[in-house]
Amino acid sequence: MTSTGSLDKAQAFRTLSAWHWTLIAAGILAAQAAILHAMGRLPICACGYVKLWHGVVQSSENSQHIADWYTPSHILHGILFYGAAFLAFPRLAWQGRLIVAMLVEGGWELVENSDWIINRYRAGTISLDYFGDSIVNSVSDTVAMIGGFLLARKLPVGITVALALLSELAMALHIRDNLTLNIIMLIHPLEAIKLWQGGPPII
Average pLDDT for residues 182-200, to the nearest whole number? Predict the structure, then answer.
């Protein structure tokens, strides 16, 4: 049975205006950027400029600009977070579930840019040129997650799942990496996958 206090909190969240939700979301993005700066992350690429798209995965500029081949993985984060938050917090307004998703994504961005994770990526994968994200890239990743969350909210479940699977397949065939492989190689690197990822694009 749901407690009265929980119902009151859920009702309070529903009374927040779109402006309030926007301010909360902006505050989370600003806090993410500030913490990354305190961690020593560069605001933009060390190359001195910002590009909308950088398509060369095995390069020092990967994860340094606004979007790259890993942006679809963050959109997929949003799709997965939408489903998880819907199941975990069914009484919470969708905006509140989005804030929860932003906190999870922002938390991961901070962990991902810790020295331990960066070194693990470099040791366990073929990402030898990876030295962490720039702040603009990290914040853009969270914005991409928001896009995926909103996409999942609007589209039918079947179409959303199909788009997620198509995204994973396209990334695997073109850059030989995707969210699934990224998780596997982070948790338990496999030499067979590492060797396969060193090959050229399949498509």
Answer: 92
Q: Is the pTM of this model over 0.70?
A: yes
> Dihedral angle at the C-alpha atoms of 65, 67, 71, 75, nearest 10 degrees?
120
Question: CB-based burial of residue 106 (10 Å sphere; 0-12 exposed, 13-18 middle, 19+ buried)?
Answer: buried
Name 126's Cβ contacts closer than 8 Å, sequence gap at least 6. 58, 194, 197, 198
Residue 188 tokens read as: 């338990």
How high does pLDDT run on average in the chain? Answer: 92
Tell me the three-class secondary structure of 140-196, residue by residue.
HHHHHHHHHHHHHHHCCHHHHHHHHHHHHHHHHHHCCCCHHHHHHHHHCCCHHHHHH
Bridge partner list, 68:
54
154: left (phi over 0), alpha (psi -120 to 50) or beta: alpha
Dist CA 157 CA 196 (whole Å): 32
| HEC per residue, 71-86 | HHHHHHHHHHHHHHHH
CA distance readout (Å), 71 to 1, 101, 162: 40, 16, 17
Cβ neighbours of residue 48 closer than 8 Å, sequence gap 6 or more: none
Which of 57, 90, 72 has the alpha carbon at shortest distance from 140? 72
* pLDDT tens readout for residues 142-179: 999 999 999 999 999 999 999 999 999 999 999 999 99
Structure tokens at 23: 């301010």
